[in-house]
Design a protein that fits this description.
Layout (H helix, E strand, L loop, with lengths): L1 E10 L7 H14 L2 E5 L2 E6 L2 H15 L6 E10 L5 H13 L5
Helix pairs in contact: 1-2
């Protein structure tokens, strides 16, 4: 199974620049070993189960919670049985039609 999760999470009470807080989340994701892709508007992770994806979300919240009074998050899932590596395969599918794209 492939679970793609596109999400954003950040504190809303820390001013205009939140990159130090987002960096904590990306570091945690990188160290977790899950496949991920950082974008300008959020992060996409790929796991084998929904439980794994939700555990990553919980861990991300846990790194912000100690010093953030308010945390915003939005999540989108694409869950597909019988597939794996959908994060890279979706991009390859488009590139097979139109050629190289920016990622």
């Amino acid at each position: 199974m492939s679970v793609l999760l596109e999400f954003a999470m950040f504190p809303t009470n820390k001013g205009e620049s939140i990159s130090p807080y987002v960096s904590r989340i990306i570091k945690l994701i990188r160290e977790s070993g899950v496949t991920y892709q950082l974008t300008a508007m959020g992060t996409i992770i790929e796991t084998e189960t929904l439980a794994e994806a939700l555990a990553v979300v919980q861990q991300c919240y846990n790194v912000l919670e100690p010093d953030c009074d308010r945390v915003y998050s939005s999540l989108k899932f694409d869950i597909r049985k019988g597939k794996s590596k959908c994060l890279s395969e979706k991009i390859k599918s488009v590139e097979n039609i139109i050629g190289k794209v920016n990622t």
